[in-house]
Structure formats: C-alpha cells, structure tokens
Amino acid sequence: MPASSVLACVALGANLGDAVATVQQALRDVAVLPNTQLFKASSLYRSEPYEAQGPDFINAVALVHTQLSPLALLHALQALEQQSGRERPYKNAPRTLDLDIIFYGDLALSTPELTLPHPRWRERAFVLLPLAEVWPERVGSAQLTAVESQAIQRISP
Questions:
Q1: Cβ neighbours around 111 below 10 Å, total
Q2: What DSSP line would sit under 10-22, residue for residue?
Q3: Domain extent listing, the chain
C-alpha cells in the first residue's frame, strides 16, 4: 500500500452457525476490502461469551493497511456483517459475525458512530490474546494478567 495507508486493527468474532468458517471467510473478506491489504492475522481462539449469552465465540484479530477513512472502514465492515446475516435484536446478542475496529493508526476519535481506540479493548481476553500474537508491542503483561480469568483457548495456528 502507498505511504498514505494507515495500520488498523480489526477484531473478528462469531458464535452462531459455523463460527470457525465464518471467521475464516471474514478474514478473507477483510483482506480484499477496497484500498485495504491484510498485513497479519492471528490464530483463531475459542472464548466464552463476555458480558453476553450463547455459545462460545470464535475470535481473531487482523492487522490491515488501509487507505479507507475510519468511517468508510467501519461501513465496509458493517456490510460484511450484514452479508453474514448479522442481526442486532439486543445488546450483546449472539451473532453470526462481529467486526470491530480496535485501532486506526494512533487516531483518537469519539463520535456517536465510532470511538477509537475501541473503548473496551483492554478488558477483553478475546481481543488481547490474539492482538498479543500479531502485535506484541501493543499488549503489556499487566493487561494480559488482568484478563487471565476469562476462558479462552487458541484453536488454530
């Protein structure tokens, strides 16, 4: 990507249907978003729902170089969620696919539609462990210790 691209971090998760296949397909879909290139993807992880109900989640983190603006990236990710059948009947409902922007470069943003960095990324093992795998400099040992009570298991290399 040209120098004007930004390194963004996207968290992926699913806990309905064939969640492994869904997250794997979502990684492929994110990699071919316009003006976006997949830089690095984590292993897949299985985690218990955090502040939610339903089956275990399959999670991953992707680092992408993108020329999309933060909102354009958000809208592209939301379109992928819709293609997967995502419904939002209530807060933290089980989902076919959940795609969240965790970081967009070093941008700090707070709008009704998007907050960056993601406001709860430090509280969630399903973000921190995959992120530590692909961007270890971004995750401190104290952060990992703080979430060690959350059940999570790496399921694929």
A1: 9
A2: EEEEE-SSSHHHH
A3: 6-154
Residues 24, 110, 92, 61, Cα dihedral to 10°? 20
Residues classed as catalytic: 86, 95, 98, 100
pLDDT at residue 78 in the model: 95
Calculate the dihedral angle through the C-alpha atoms of 6, 77, 27, 24, rounding to the nearest 10 degrees: 160
- Mean residue pLDDT of the chain comes to 91
DSSP letter, residue 77: H
Residue with tokens 């996207």: 10
Domain 6-154 has CATH 3.30.70.560: yes
C-alpha angle 42-45-49 in degrees, rounded to nearest 5: 130
Distance of CA 85 to the CA centre of its chain: 17
| CA distance readout (Å), 76 to 31, 39, 137 | 12, 17, 27
Contacts of 33 (CB under 8 A, 6+ apart): 64, 66, 68, 73, 76
**pTM of the complete model:** 0.92
